[in-house]
Amino acid sequence: MKIDVVGIRLVKEREIDYDKPIKKPIDTVNFVLEEMQDLDREMCMTLNLDANNCVLNAHIVSVGGLDSSIVDVKSVMKSALLSNACGIIMYHNHPSGNIHPSQPDKILTEHIRKAADTMNIRLIDHVIVCESQFYSFADEGLL
Question: Which H or E run contains 136?
Fold first, then answer.
C-alpha cells in the first residue's frame, strides 16, 4: 500500500492596494469599506492578524447573493491557522443598506468565536459594512 504525503500551503492569489498604514483593528474598517462598499451582493472577508494586531493577510471567505452568503467556519479557521494568526477580524457587507446584524449573523459570529477560542485565536471583531458606515459586534458588546 502507498500512502500519499501531502502538504498544505497558504497561496497568495492577488494583492490589494491600500496606501494607509494598518496597525490597529479600527484602522482596518476604511480598508474594508473601500473593498466592499460598491458590491451588489454579500461578501465575507477576514483579516488575519499577528500578535501586535498588524494585518498578515486578507481572506475572501465567500461571495453570495443579494442578501446572504454562506460562510464555512472551517474555511475561516483554516486561513487563520495557515497564516499563523493570533487574531482575526471578520467582515461582511449588507448591500441592502441595513447596518444591523441579522439573527444568522449573530449565530455565525458565535460559531466563529467558539472555534477561534478552541484554537487560541482571538476573534477581535465582526464588522458589518454598508456604504460609508459600519456596525461593530465588539463595540456593541456582542463579543
Answer: strand 133-136
Q: What are 103's three cell numbers?
A: 439573527
β 87-93/55-63 pair status: unpaired
User: Which grid cell sits at 112?
Assistant: 466563529
67-103 pLDDT per residue, tens: 677 889 999 999 999 999 999 999 998 888 888 999 9
121 vs 50, 51, 78, 139, CA distance in Å? 10, 10, 12, 19
What is the per-residue pLDDT across 93-120, written as a single tens digit (0 to 9) for each? 888 888 899 999 999 999 999 999 999 9
From residue 134, alpha-carbon distances to 2, 54, 127 in Å are 52, 20, 7
